[in-house]
Structures are given as structure tokens and as C-alpha cells.
Structure of Peptidase S1 domain-containing protein:
Amino acid sequence: MLIIGTLDMGRPIRLLLLAITLLVASIVSPARASDSRGVDLADYRGGLLIRNGQQTSCEVALIDGTSAFIAATCVTDGNGNIDTSASYQIYVDSRIDKLGARAPLLSSAITVHPRFDPSTFANNIAIIRYSLEPSKQWHINVAIARSEWEGSVYMRRRMNNMDKMDWASTSTGRKDMSDADCAKSYGLYGANNDDFKCTSDTAPRMMDSACGVPYGTYYSIMQDRAYLAGIYSHSVIDGDTLCSSKNAVHYYTLVSNYIAFAQKVLGRGVATMSTSNATPNSDSSYRMAAGSFFTPDGMRAFAGNEFAKGDDGTWQTANGPGDPSPLTAADQQQDNNDENKDDDNAATQTGITTSRSTSASRGRSSRTRTVSATGTLTDQDGADGPDATDAASAAADWIPHESQASALGNGVTGVNDSPGGDGHSKGRGGLTKGQVAAIVVCLVLFAIFATVGAFYGLRWYRRRKLSRWSPSAVQQILESHMVENEVGSAPHAKFELPSYRHHRDTALVAAGPH
């Protein structure tokens, strides 16, 4: 019976092995958001700009726990100056360590690129500094060599509940447009291929929007991992609003050429990532090459917070009041000669920055630029933006790429050393996602083989123990037990040794009766 019972354990063992196999599959290929190359996107840190207590569409490209890149159009007025009339906050998400955080953002902690041009959106970048609560040390790896990138991921983040810091699932897109197609809708692109990426994809509708909204940040794919590479700059549309546009193109400023600018402002290093050990541009005053802003006839560009409402109560991502009226060269010339203060005031009240739109009645919900019938802007050679001397004097000299290890501290050598920094992978010098999966698989396989080995070892031990009895001995024992069960136990003889002391009595007993 013992042997039969042991053999019956085979089915439970098979079920156990099946369960372990399913567990391994769930560990190696978890049901999480990923791109077509298998890049896990669920745990990548991201951040949002909050303006006057309201969520905006402006994402921040995090550098570390105290600084980030942001589009200058999100924090400036129509003239490219920092908008000090609004209050700002930064909210940061990270599902890998469940450490959501927030921080106030002071206008004095915003440094706009000195060559930011609000009329063309060239150098649409700014550096912000903050102190998150709760605080934790981490940093993000920034991709710097466009030639190494194997793919693209565009991301959009938002919160379901600001008070509880409840973040919604991250939306992603992967569609890239060619450089030639990107340049068709935005002339400045052709002169600055290394500074832009573009896509026609949008994230699903959100925040009561009537249509999809542009993604907030751009990541490049290298060796099956995603690395921060860019931030949303502006969109070019052929309608009066994004939702009425049928041929919208969205442009993203790549931050790689602005690493030195960030280091100069922050006075410390910025972690970078390159598979070929490339170094970032060391020019802290780098600016895009001059180029025409031209777009196809009748198209317009907008930037800033798409979630804010214009003075007509509509959103940039809401359906417009009607079909847009055609734009003429006369409209453009009038726009160039008129500063349109009413539009600027309306934008300031609603948290939007507007740069010389066609008229106040159009109710721009974000900064716009309109092209004439000839497809050119006559005022694109205007002011280059605020002077950079204040930012330069307030910051230490930028730190070269070779000195990043000492600048980052704690033995950092320019790669992410924290959970959730730019995903849950470590980069160079640490365990990658594939290595962690391999370790888990090895441990599980070891457990499986140990279980199977123990099972067969126990069965062998029991068989060996039984084989030590001969068949005749076993038969004799069984027959003995059968006799005992039928007639009871046989009487046992009692013997006593003879004693000299009672010799006579013993002899009589031995002789028996006479």
C-alpha cells in the first residue's frame, strides 16, 4: 500500500510543476504596459506642471529629484518672459517604489534658455529647480546620441486625483515621422534635425477633452530599454483647434544639446546614456541654427498648456465654435503690427501665453503662431528672448561630462542608480531587466529540480528499505500475524535457573509425581 500511495503522488507533482511554470511565465513576461520591443514602461518616473492648482498638459523631463527640463512656453508669457503672475507646483510619479511626491516651484527657480524665441519656438526649453516632499535621491539617464536610437516611445501622464496623488495609467505611442515629412510642416526642423522629433500620434482623450492630446515626453530605445530624450514643444495644425485639425503634427525638442546649459544652471552634472560612450555637446550657450518658420498655407502652430481654456471658453483640445475662417496675408501683416494686448491679458488670466494670434476673438487656448498665404513669418527675426547674464551669474561654471562622477556623488558614474529612475533597469554597472529575469528563472528551475529530486529520492529510499526483507521472511511474518489474529497469542514457557539453596525442592519439582 505504501508503494501504491507513493506512485499516486505523480499527478500532484505534475500539477505543481505546471503551476511553477505559469509563475515563471508571469515573472518573465508580466502583464504591464510595454512597447513593441518589450520595453517595460510602467515604472518610468514622470512629472507634471500644476498651474494655479490645476493640472496642465505640460510634462517635465526629469533630470533628478531636484531639477527638470520643461518647455519654456509652459512658464512664460507671450514675450518669452517668466510668468510671475501664476503659482506653480511639480508633481512626480513613480510606481516602482510607490513614492509619489510634489513640490512648489518658485518663479525664481525657473531659468529659460537665453535664446528661446517665442515667435518660432526655437530653443523652447527651460530648467526648473525644486525640493520634492518626500525627498529621495535618484536621477534619470538622458540619451544623447541620436544615431544610436533604435526606436521611439512617446508618453503622456496625468493624475486621476491630485490630492491623493493618484496617477492614471501612462499612455504611449510609437509612431515616428520621417525627417523630410517633419520639415514639410515646420521649416525650422530642416535646419535642426538633431534637435527635434515629430509624430502625428496623440494620446487618448483625457481631462474632458474632445479629442486626443499630444504626448508630453519622448524616450529613445537602446538595447531594449527606454531613455529620456525629449519634451513636447508645439504642434502645427490645419484647423482652428487641435480637434478640428485633420493633419496635425507634434514636435518634440530633444534635450541632448542642452545638457551643458542645464549643467551650467544647476552647477552639477547631468547623467547621460550612450551605447558608444559618446559625450554630450559641451557648449552651454548652444542654440538652434537659424531657419525659416514656414509651414504649409493656412496652417498655424500652438504651444503651452492645451488643457487651459481661452477667453471664449473653449479648449485647444475641444471642438471649436465652427469652421476656421481662411487666413490671408493681410491678416498676418495686421498681426505682426499689433501687439494685441487684450489677447495677452486673457492668456495671463487663464494660464496661457499667446504670441500675436490673429485676433482676440479666436480665443487661443495656448500660444499660437499663424502663417500667411505665402507660408512665412515676417517677424521671426525679433528679440532673441531674455538676457542670459542673470542665469549665468547665478550658476557655477558647467561641469564637463568627464567630471560627472564627482558631481553626482555617491560613486555615480553617469548612470541611474535608483529604483524607478529611468525605468527599473540599472544601466551600465548594474543588473539589467534581462539579467534579473535570468536570475529568477534559474532560482525557479533550481526549486523545480530540487522538488523532483527529493520526490524520486524518497521513493528510492522506501524501495531500498523494503528490499532488505526476503520474500520468505515476509511470508512467515504475515502467516504469524494471521495465526495470532485467529487463535490468539501462543503461551510462552517460563524457565528458572536451578538454585543450590533450594536444591531439594528443585529436584522434587523436576522429578514430578511418584
